[in-house]
Automatic annotation (TrEMBL):
Subcellular location: Cytoplasm
Lineage: Bacteria, Pseudomonadati, Bacteroidota, Bacteroidia, Bacteroidales
Gene3D superfamilies: 3.10.50.40
This protein's name: Peptidyl-prolyl cis-trans isomerase
Any single GO CC term annotated in Swiss-Prot or TrEMBL for this entry: cytoplasm
Main location: cytoplasm
Family statement: Belongs to the FKBP-type PPIase family.
Pfam families xrefs: FKBP_C (PF00254)
InterPro entries: PPIase_dom_sf, PPIase_FKBP_dom
Annotated keywords: Chaperone, Cytoplasm, Isomerase, Rotamase
PANTHER family: FKBP-TYPE PEPTIDYL-PROLYL CIS-TRANS ISOMERASE SLYD
Reaction it catalyzes: [protein]-peptidylproline (omega=180) = [protein]-peptidylproline (omega=0)
Record organism: Hoylesella shahii DSM 15611 = JCM 12083
UniProt-listed GO biological process terms: protein refolding
Keyword tRNA processing: no
Length: 205
């Protein structure tokens, strides 16, 4: 196929992190609920998309993606002390949603949305980690191609609509979204989350 064509790809896989030769299962997209995406939109990591886009339906694959091609290193400057007032509604702190280890949707002053994980809460500060959950990790995908075909004009248009209208990729047919991040694959190993400038004009939604 021509490289320029948008392809509709569905993959079933298990995702592992690799450290010191040890594989740790992070998540799974089973064959009955595969990860679905259209190439050419930057939804997936480039290394992931390049690794599967030319594989035929039914092909088994193993992809090793080192951290610098995945989510990069873990950066201390992405750990912020945010004013507790940000998470106060009608004078009351949002204890229901803001607690240690909670994953919280945030928005900076430029309107970029991203996820943060609560590390600690003090009397006046919420310490938030804006690093991607998979930052600093080497990734290993083991899976199978469930579908690989040229995307229809309608599918491409749906993708364009979602990207322009929502700034995300929720229309790609993914239905996992168990982390509420990116394109329904749990940790959004496929999107460019975490690359926004995290000026401290964060707001809680």
């Amino acid at each position: 196929m021509e490289k320029g064509n948008n392809k509709f790809i569905a993959v079933a896989y298990k995702l592992y992190s690799v450290a010191d030769g040890k594989e740790t299962l992070i998540e799974e997209a089973p064959a009955d609920r595969p990860f679905v995406f259209i190439t050419g939109f930057g939804i997936t990591l480039d290394a992931f998309e390049n690794g599967v886009e030319d594989l035929p339906k039914g092909e088994l694959f193993t992809l090793n993606i080192e951290s610098d091609e995945a989510y990069g290193e873990r950066l201390d400057e992405r750990v912020l002390d945010l004013d507790k007032e940000i998470f106060t509604i009608n004078g009351h702190f949002d204890h229901e949603n803001i607690y240690k280890d909670a994953v919280v949707p945030l928005q900076n002053e430029d309107g970029n949305r991203f996820m943060g994980r609560v590390l600690d809460i003090t009397d006046d500060i919420v310490k938030m980690d804006l690093n991607h959950p998979l930052a600093g990790l080497d990734l290993l995908f083991k899976g199978e191609i469930v579908e690989n075909r040229e995307a229809t004009n309608e599918e491409v248009q749906q993708m364009l609509n979602h990207i322009s209208g929502e700034g995300g990729c929720g229309g790609c047919g993914c239905d996992h979204d168990h982390q509420g991040e990116g394109c329904g694959c749990g940790h959004d190993h496929h999107g460019k989350e975490g690359e926004h400038g995290h000026g401290c004009g964060c707001s809680h939604h």
